[in-house]
User: Fold these one by one.
Assistant:
Number 1:
Amino acid sequence: MEEGGGEEYLFKIVVIGDSAVGKSNLLSRFARDEFDHNSKATIGVEFQTQVVELDGKEVKAQVWDTAGQERFRAVTSAYYRGAVGALVVYDISRKTTFESVKRWLDELNTHCDTTVARMLVGNKCDLENIREVSVDEGKSLAEEEGLFFIETSALDSTNVNKAFEIVIREIYEKVSRKIL
Ligand code: GDP
Ligand code: MG
């Protein structure tokens, strides 16, 4: 996290979770309001910056995308370095991606402080008809692990901005209280 000009903040936020849960699309929906049906198109993109205003202060959210590295189980420590927020994403229509959440949290904990603002994100909530993970399962895991929880759809935009905004707000409050 960097602070410049007295009123300017830069928050690094990482998006993690199994391959194909929708990480890249959450990011492009948030940063550019775009949805990409061709998942391969995101390879190579490392981060996107979105400016938000909080209490009259300019906050730059620099959101990092694994850019496909996770497929090879090789998200490097450079990816996590300096992160102050994390979105741990699973796909509500694929139970295995939910079962991986603990592994992603373990990995986050090896690389980052426990003070990092965390949000559990159940993406693809538009796929209600093939849902494999209930809202309650998501909620209770989040409670157990001390995470915020939200269900999103990068496809139809449900809660995407809200997910990022909650994390950014939490980081901002921690920074203001000098916890981060
Ligand atoms: P990543 O590997 O986690 O970055 O996942 P991508 O963002 O590349 O998305 C993987 C696949 O899921 C692509 O085919 C997307 O079109 C699709 N996808 C992503 N988000 C959603 C969503 O909210 N709803 C639905 N139905 N499909 C999604
Ligand atoms: Mg991706």
Note: The longest strand covers residues 8-16.
Number 2:
Amino acid sequence: MKITIIAGARPNFIKIAPIIKAINKKQSDGETISFRLVHTGQHYDKNLSDTFFEELNIPHPNANLEVKSGSQAEQTGAIMIAFEKELLQNPCDLVLVVGDVNSTMACAIVAKKMNVKVAHVEAGIRSGDMTMPEEINRIVTDSITDYFFTTSTSASDNLLKNGIESSNIHFVGNVMIDTLYQNLDRIFAPNFWKEFGLETGNYIILTLHRPSNVDEEKSLINLLEGIDEMVGDKKIIFPIHPRTKAILGETNLNLKNILFVEPQGYLNFMYLIKNSFAVITDSGGISEETTVLGIPCFTMRTTTERPETIEIGTNNLVGTSIENLTLEFTKFLQNGLPKKGIPELWDGKASERIIDILLKK
Ligand code: UDP
């Protein structure tokens, strides 16, 4: 079986790493399975791309479509045009896409129109929020996917409700958590650990990059000032996403606790998360990692496509206003964390399950 694996953005790199490992293992066991890795170039900053390939031992991509930035349509269109050429020149039995970025949807459409089977890893998750570009990518991708690999039974249920045959839905667990378990003994402190006086439990991690939180400069500044005020004497480490950085530009902010740092490599970032007091974020993936690590997480969104991180895990959906974040954060300071658990099958073996299933197809 020849599989073309698509990766375009930071969370994709983290998700494909264990899948490639699982394929390599099968190859060394004598199975006939091979892969071609296509990087669409959606994320191209060293900090968001190369570092992840190096740290997670992902092989150099066989092709880089180098689409770079653009509007939603420009980027999606550019990926489709380039990937069609790539797939014509390098036919395969299956295109495997992960997550919910533009590369996921664009490559799934191209493959399906060329009568190539599509496998979607992290299928079926839904926020119900059609203002999120990712939600549109999820719905479109799942409408043309052949093999659905899900992280939760609620994701599988969403697909069943959409009329997908149950025999094509495979609840396998979470590949992002495979990567976490495979690298926990490799994580290490970033250079600024000592310089900033960081110690386990004395700082908070902040990440913000969703358009709804960062695209309006005034409300972003209001949010940052509010968070800075809310945390008392805790330091806040803020690895700033390029999108957020571009909005803030050269703005001079008067913040006493927030320390801006570059987007972190995976091994430093996981060290920072694992040792933090709490996390404030609008990321989906991070709420899964904090769930497994038992770190309190405050998600600055009104919806989530990962309900298990709230029902079982440590995630707290607080909305996008500083008032509500402050209210929920204060409650947490008073009462602690109500419950902690790890969702079913988030055991580090999802990638192996995926490859086992694909080999039987
Ligand atoms: N991440 C990282 N360094 C950072 C910020 C995030 O390694 O500075 C990792 C994080 O641990 C998670 C992934 O990137 O595994 C999530 O990416 P992001 O928040 O960009 O995407 P989302 O999950 O929201 O789609």
Note: The mean pLDDT is 96.
